[in-house]
Amino acid sequence: MKIYTRTGDKGQTALIGGRVDKDDIRVEAYGTVDELNSFVGQAIAELETEKFTDVIADLEKIQHELFDCGGDLASVSKRRQEKLTEETISYLEQRIDILMEETPDLERFILPGGSKPAASIHIARTITRRAERLVVRLLKQDSSVPVVTLQYLNRLSDYFFALARVVNFRLDVKDVEYIRSAKVFHTGKRKE
């Protein structure tokens, strides 16, 4: 099987239901989601299987969802059926809540990094934010883009933030607070 087709040699690529230039905002958006998926794969490869079974399962699920997200973004067909759903977002929200319970309260911004896998997850978080910005631009041009895609990416970046903190916590690596940060997060606990 040959993996090259030569159909993109003139700067265009196929979508589901059409063709566009390779620098089209739609291609940029789903290409960024593909880049993100690669960093999620890198994070999985850096995690110790025994200590992070739940995290690896989440990340593998997310990799499939990112393929779904890319497919949703690559479709211009009038008969398309989106693969991402509200349930996908609800699951992420549940996982974020669980992860945040595992880590110490946070009052200030933290620097991305810590352990190697947490650093990879922070990279995934920032790429997610870029993908989200690109989808916002795409939505301004094409209102038929599924809004759930934007919502998913927004929630996914929050998930990666919570996850990076959990990974550092389980590896006994402290988050490094940004030294010039004011107290921006409130614990919700009242002082007696």
UniProtKB/TrEMBL annotation:
NCBIfam families found in the cross-reference section: PduO_Nterm (TIGR00636)
Superkingdom per UniProt:
Bacteria
**Which reaction equation describes what this protein catalyses?**
2 cob(II)yrinate a,c diamide + reduced [electron-transfer flavoprotein] + 2 ATP = 2 adenosylcob(III)yrinate a,c-diamide + 2 triphosphate + oxidized [electron-transfer flavoprotein] + 3 H(+); 2 cob(II)alamin + reduced [electron-transfer flavoprotein] + 2 ATP = 2 adenosylcob(III)alamin + 2 triphosphate + oxidized [electron-transfer flavoprotein] + 3 H(+)
Q: Which residues form the signal peptide?
A: none
Similarity-based family: Belongs to the Cob(I)alamin adenosyltransferase family.
Q: Does the keyword Cytoplasm apply?
A: no
Entry protein name: Corrinoid adenosyltransferase
List the source organism. Answer: Paracerasibacillus soli
Q: What is its EC number?
A: 2.5.1.17
Pathway(s) it belongs to: Cofactor biosynthesis; adenosylcobalamin biosynthesis; adenosylcobalamin from cob(II)yrinate a,c-diamide: step 2/7
Q: Which UniProt keywords apply?
A: ATP-binding, Cobalamin biosynthesis, Nucleotide-binding, Transferase
* Listed GO MF terms: corrinoid adenosyltransferase activity
The segment(s) forming the Cobalamin adenosyltransferase-like domain are: 3-167
Query: What is its EC class?
Result: transferase
